[in-house]
Write a structure and sequence with these properties.
The chain is of the alpha/beta class. Helix content is 29%, strand content 23%.
Amino acid sequence: MRTRRLLVLASTAVTAAWLVFRRRPAPGRFTRRFYVNRAGTRFYHLYLPKLYRGQALPLVVMLHGCKQAPDDFATGTRMNQFADEYGFIVVYPAQAWRANIERCWNWFRDRDQQRDRGEPAIIAGITRQVIARYRADPRRVYIAGLSAGGSMAAIMAATYPELYAAVGIHSGLPYAGARGAATAAAAMRWKRLGAAAPPPPIPTIIFHGDSDTTVHPSNGEYAVRPSISEEGSAGGRRYRRSAQYGDVPFEHWVIHGAGHAWSGGNGEASFADAKGPDASREMLRFFFSAERAQERLPEKAVA
């Protein structure tokens, strides 16, 4: 009996150690900071990769979705691990529950869709603060988000096109996709009617699951005539990728059978789907390709 109890305790200890090992942060520095301007105050998490020694690295701004927080979003997207692998800084602005009880970015409010006002002014301020304090390369700053964060990323691309070199929108809505809470609910739930939205003015990559019941997949469709369209599979899911490469590159990924979650992410986190093409890796490939730095990442991350 005593031997069995010792074996159970030992097994429990090994399991606990394994969980700690799996969840331990990446080797770089993950810290919490805050930013204040006339539009408000927000905390943010900052990840400096293990190779950071003050050199001018690229910067990726990551906007979480509703009911998420920066650490959870970092786990789900695995962006800190990619930062160590490829050498860039990551910043995760945090929505305050006082601003939205569900911690959603308020992408549907008029004052939060304008340059130098509301949440866009705060996010742009955080971006500039990190560039200045950590000497990030201002020519290589990117922004991406999921759901409400993806919708806010679209707003940032439209209102601060000189600040960001490219944008990634996952399961989000286009800029000015709604004007108020009532129209936001309709825009999210139903198929988009009328003309497709104009694309952002900067290089854009979009991911959306065609089984998403939270944000209708039609919100990922923009007024772009693709020159490339292909079907493929990765991570146990099939996808369709449409692309147009010109002055302003654009890619649209439709993940077949995927719901409202970050494709190819860490399934232990909220709103992250372990199946499907790796949205984080593909976004980084697209970002760096858009700046003509293909040598930093493979030309294409999935077969």
